[in-house]
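Summary of Year 1 activities. Much of the first year was spent building the evaluation harness for sequence design. The harness presents a backbone, in tokenized form, and records the residue chosen at every position. We chose the following record to illustrate the format because it has been used consistently in internal testing since the harness was completed.
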């Protein structure tokens, strides 16, 4: 039994010690007639509001299986939002203390 527990701890420790993968690279391309289908396939609806091109996406609201919220942002704003969220997750990961093993 102790051998199994020691083996499980060793496997978990080795898994935690590996280097994380590189974050995915977000492509920044202008939305035009040639790639509107690609944006739509990714779940966005292209909207022109007062001469400003917006990408709208329906998002499931937290805690609900039926309520949605629609967010409309420019491509630059979507990129900024994704970068900020990625930085927040990385910051939380840096702050997280290492797991404690108690004997």
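For this record, the design step produced the sequence shown next.
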């Amino acid at each position: 039994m102790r051998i199994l527990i020691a083996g499980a701890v060793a496997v978990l420790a080795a898994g935690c010690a590996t280097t994380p993968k590189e974050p995915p690279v977000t492509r920044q391309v202008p939305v035009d007639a040639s790639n509107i289908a690609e944006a739509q396939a990714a779940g966005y609806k292209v909207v022109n509001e007062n001469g400003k091109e917006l990408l709208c996406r329906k998002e499931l609201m937290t805690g609900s299986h039926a309520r949605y919220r629609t967010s409309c942002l420019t491509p630059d704003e979507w990129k900024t939002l994704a970068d900020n969220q990625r930085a927040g997750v990385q910051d939380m990961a840096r702050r997280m203390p290492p797991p404690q093993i108690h004997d």
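The mean pLDDT is 76. Quantitative recovery figures across the full test set are reported in Table 2.
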